[in-house]
Amino acid sequence: MATVLTMVATASLGLWQLDRAAQKLALQAQINERGGLEALNTEELLKTPDVMAGVHRPVRLSGTWVPDRTIFLDNRQMNTRVGFFVVTPLRLANSERAVLVQRGWVPRDFNDRSRVPEVVTPAGLVLLEGRLAPPPGKLYELGEAAPGAIRQNIDLPAFARETGLSLLGVSVLQTDAAADGLLREWPRVAVDVHKHHGYAFQWFSLCALAGLLYLWFQILSPRRKRRFHGTDAR
User: Fold this and answer.
1) For residue 198, which of 30, 5, 13 has the smallest C-alpha distance?
2) What is 142-179 written as a DSSP string?
3) pLDDT digits (tens, 9 = 90+) for 82-98
4) Closest to 128 measured CA to CA, from 160, 99, 157, 85
5) Nearest residue to 157 (alpha-carbon basis) of 148, 149, 145
6) Which residues cross the membrane (predicted)?
7) CA–CA separation, 157 vs 202, rounded Å?
8) What is the residue extent of each domain of the chain?
9) Is 109 helix (H, G, I), strand (E, B) or coil?
């Protein structure tokens, strides 16, 4: 009974890992499909009822920067180098709505960690290309979030209340080659299914091991002992 329960449990966990891998493969296919769609323009984005459903889709937006609300997200890496992600709200053209734009990466001054780097932010109407993304990812932070231009994280609802901006529930990863000196070598969006296949292999191996141990200790080994003792008696 213990062997049966062990085999059922480990086989179930292996199948669950394969199911997780299948779900992630489906998600990767969805990401690839959205990435190949035609770019949304400003008007289309504003008319989208569920903007999060369009995450990973290309966009081509027009609007004006809100430079005095630029945030420098600290401890962010690009090409293994640590620095800032520069995040600036873009007030969309002909609208009161705005969207956070992750404009790119810039190195920090390690001699003066409070120094904010100079970033070129054009005035007037700008056009930018990018892709929809979730709000900027959060890093572990001790204590309360500090105000100011340099921050560890951005909480979208709190930032909207702080700035008075009507922010969309997504952000934009800027991808065009604007002349602002920012690095935009964003990592390719991809899901990792290899670990699930590895875990599945481990669980199925344990399942097979439990079956083999039962076969050896309960069937094969006793038979060998009986044969040995029978031969020894003769």
Assistant:
1) 13
2) -SSPP-SSEES---HHHHHHHHT-EEEEEEEEE-S--T
3) 999 999 999 999 999 99
4) 99
5) 145
6) 199-217
7) 42
8) 2-23+193-233, 57-174
9) coil
